[in-house]
Specification:
- The chain is an all-alpha fold.
- The chain is built from 3 helices and no strands.
- Helix 1 packs across helix 2.
- The termini are far apart.
C-alpha cells in the first residue's frame, strides 16, 4: 500500500491537537495528511509496544 493507494478517511482530533497539527502543516508548507502520515511513521514502532486490549495475556502480563 505504498504511495499510490489513496482512500478518504475521516479522523477526529481534540481541538488543541488539531490546531497544533495545522500550525505545523503551515510552518512546513505541507498538508495535514502529510503531517499525520509522517507522525504515524515516526511513532509506529513505539505504539506497537502497547498491549492490545483484545489480548488478555498481554494485559495480564504487561
Amino acid at each position: 500500500m505504498a504511495g499510490s493507494d489513496k482512500r478518504k478517511q475521516s479522523l477526529y482530533f481534540p481541538e488543541d491537537m488539531l490546531k497544533e497539527i495545522q500550525a505545523e502543516a503551515a510552518r512546513q508548507d505541507r498538508s495535514l495528511s502529510w503531517i499525520v502520515q509522517k507522525a504515524w511513521k515516526i511513532a509506529r514502532s513505539e505504539i506497537q509496544k502497547y498491549p492490545s486490549i483484545n489480548d488478555p495475556d498481554e494485559v495480564a502480563n504487561g
